[in-house]
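Progress against Task 2.4 (sequence-to-structure conversion) is shown through the following example record, which the project officer requested during the mid-term review.
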Amino acid sequence: MKLTDEWFTAIAESEEGNDTIFVSGRCGIDEFRCSGKFRERAEVTWRYDADSKGMPDEATATLMEDVMATLRRAMEKNKLAILTGVYTGGGERNMIFYTRNIPAFGNTLNEALMPYELLPLTIYTEKDADWSEYAEMCVLRSDDVDDMVDDEDVL
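C-alpha coordinates generated for the chain above:
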Protein backbone atom coordinates (compact mmCIF):
# COMPACT_ATOMS: atom_id res chain seq x y z
CA MET A 1 0.00 0.00 0.00
CA LYS A 2 1.43 3.29 -1.10
CA LEU A 3 0.49 6.43 0.79
CA THR A 4 0.08 9.48 -1.43
CA ASP A 5 0.09 13.14 -0.51
CA GLU A 6 -2.95 14.21 -2.55
CA TRP A 7 -5.55 16.37 -0.78
CA PHE A 8 -8.73 18.23 -1.57
CA THR A 9 -9.90 21.41 0.12
CA ALA A 10 -13.47 22.37 0.88
CA ILE A 11 -15.31 24.96 2.93
CA ALA A 12 -18.06 24.13 5.40
CA GLU A 13 -19.97 25.91 8.15
CA SER A 14 -19.79 25.22 11.86
CA GLU A 15 -22.78 23.42 13.37
CA GLU A 16 -23.98 26.79 14.70
CA GLY A 17 -23.62 28.24 11.20
CA ASN A 18 -21.64 31.27 12.35
CA ASP A 19 -18.07 30.16 11.47
CA THR A 20 -16.37 28.97 8.32
CA ILE A 21 -14.54 25.66 8.60
CA PHE A 22 -11.72 24.88 6.18
CA VAL A 23 -11.55 21.17 5.39
CA SER A 24 -8.56 19.34 3.96
CA GLY A 25 -9.25 15.73 3.00
CA ARG A 26 -6.88 13.09 1.78
CA CYS A 27 -7.39 11.46 -1.60
CA GLY A 28 -6.07 8.19 -2.95
CA ILE A 29 -6.30 6.15 0.24
CA ASP A 30 -8.87 3.55 -0.78
CA GLU A 31 -6.33 0.73 -0.33
CA PHE A 32 -5.95 1.70 3.31
CA ARG A 33 -9.69 2.20 3.80
CA CYS A 34 -10.56 -1.15 2.27
CA SER A 35 -7.73 -3.12 3.88
CA GLY A 36 -9.66 -3.59 7.13
CA LYS A 37 -6.50 -2.82 9.11
CA PHE A 38 -7.36 0.74 10.14
CA ARG A 39 -10.50 0.15 12.18
CA GLU A 40 -10.11 2.85 14.83
CA ARG A 41 -10.50 6.61 14.41
CA ALA A 42 -8.51 9.02 16.56
CA GLU A 43 -9.43 12.70 16.57
CA VAL A 44 -6.83 15.11 17.90
CA THR A 45 -8.50 18.43 18.71
CA TRP A 46 -6.65 21.68 19.38
CA ARG A 47 -8.80 24.51 20.73
CA TYR A 48 -7.39 28.01 20.26
CA ASP A 49 -8.35 31.64 20.79
CA ALA A 50 -10.03 32.54 17.52
CA ASP A 51 -10.08 35.82 15.67
CA SER A 52 -13.37 37.34 14.47
CA LYS A 53 -13.47 34.80 11.61
CA GLY A 54 -12.86 31.79 13.87
CA MET A 55 -9.23 31.35 12.79
CA PRO A 56 -6.04 31.14 14.87
CA ASP A 57 -3.50 33.95 15.01
CA GLU A 58 -0.38 33.60 12.87
CA ALA A 59 1.89 32.26 15.63
CA THR A 60 -0.65 29.63 16.66
CA ALA A 61 -1.29 28.63 13.04
CA THR A 62 2.45 28.19 12.47
CA LEU A 63 2.80 26.05 15.60
CA MET A 64 -0.23 23.98 14.58
CA GLU A 65 1.29 23.28 11.17
CA ASP A 66 4.57 22.21 12.77
CA VAL A 67 2.83 19.93 15.28
CA MET A 68 0.63 18.42 12.57
CA ALA A 69 3.66 17.68 10.37
CA THR A 70 5.44 16.10 13.35
CA LEU A 71 2.45 13.91 14.20
CA ARG A 72 1.93 12.92 10.60
CA ARG A 73 5.57 11.84 10.17
CA ALA A 74 5.50 9.86 13.42
CA MET A 75 2.20 8.11 12.70
CA GLU A 76 2.76 7.41 9.03
CA LYS A 77 6.39 6.32 9.33
CA ASN A 78 5.41 2.69 9.90
CA LYS A 79 1.80 3.16 8.80
CA LEU A 80 0.54 2.98 12.37
CA ALA A 81 -2.03 5.65 11.52
CA ILE A 82 -3.02 7.68 8.48
CA LEU A 83 -3.94 11.37 8.65
CA THR A 84 -7.15 11.52 6.58
CA GLY A 85 -8.64 14.92 7.32
CA VAL A 86 -8.07 18.29 8.94
CA TYR A 87 -10.81 20.74 9.94
CA THR A 88 -9.83 24.28 10.98
CA GLY A 89 -12.18 27.03 12.11
CA GLY A 90 -14.58 28.02 14.84
CA GLY A 91 -11.78 28.10 17.41
CA GLU A 92 -10.47 24.58 16.88
CA ARG A 93 -8.47 22.33 14.60
CA ASN A 94 -9.41 18.68 14.34
CA MET A 95 -6.91 16.23 12.90
CA ILE A 96 -8.50 12.91 11.96
CA PHE A 97 -6.39 9.76 11.93
CA TYR A 98 -7.37 6.18 11.22
CA THR A 99 -5.16 3.78 13.14
CA ARG A 100 -4.41 0.11 13.60
CA ASN A 101 -3.91 0.34 17.35
CA ILE A 102 -5.11 2.97 19.83
CA PRO A 103 -2.57 2.29 22.63
CA ALA A 104 0.34 2.44 20.13
CA PHE A 105 -1.19 5.62 18.65
CA GLY A 106 -1.22 7.21 22.13
CA ASN A 107 2.35 6.20 22.86
CA THR A 108 3.56 7.49 19.48
CA LEU A 109 1.66 10.75 19.94
CA ASN A 110 3.23 11.32 23.36
CA GLU A 111 6.73 10.55 22.07
CA ALA A 112 6.32 12.79 19.02
CA LEU A 113 5.11 15.72 21.14
CA MET A 114 7.85 15.51 23.80
CA PRO A 115 9.88 18.39 22.28
CA TYR A 116 6.90 20.75 22.61
CA GLU A 117 5.59 22.54 25.66
CA LEU A 118 2.22 21.30 26.87
CA LEU A 119 -0.33 21.79 24.07
CA PRO A 120 -4.11 22.26 24.45
CA LEU A 121 -4.95 18.94 22.81
CA THR A 122 -7.77 16.52 23.49
CA ILE A 123 -7.97 13.05 22.01
CA TYR A 124 -11.15 11.19 21.15
CA THR A 125 -11.19 7.65 19.77
CA GLU A 126 -13.84 5.27 18.55
CA LYS A 127 -14.21 2.21 16.38
CA ASP A 128 -14.97 3.24 12.80
CA ALA A 129 -14.17 0.22 10.64
CA ASP A 130 -16.45 1.58 7.90
CA TRP A 131 -14.62 4.93 7.84
CA SER A 132 -17.94 6.74 8.24
CA GLU A 133 -16.33 10.05 9.25
CA TYR A 134 -14.13 9.91 6.15
CA ALA A 135 -17.14 9.22 3.93
CA GLU A 136 -19.00 12.19 5.44
CA MET A 137 -16.00 14.44 4.83
CA CYS A 138 -15.73 13.28 1.22
CA VAL A 139 -19.26 14.52 0.54
CA LEU A 140 -17.81 18.02 0.91
CA ARG A 141 -15.54 17.48 -2.05
CA SER A 142 -16.84 19.54 -4.94
CA ASP A 143 -15.58 17.37 -7.78
CA ASP A 144 -16.03 13.64 -8.40
CA VAL A 145 -16.57 11.90 -5.07
CA ASP A 146 -16.52 8.52 -6.81
CA ASP A 147 -12.73 8.73 -7.03
CA MET A 148 -12.56 8.58 -3.25
CA VAL A 149 -15.56 6.72 -1.87
CA ASP A 150 -18.12 4.31 -3.28
CA ASP A 151 -21.60 5.83 -3.54
CA GLU A 152 -23.00 3.37 -1.01
CA ASP A 153 -20.37 4.45 1.54
CA VAL A 154 -21.48 8.08 1.23
CA LEU A 155 -25.19 7.39 1.79
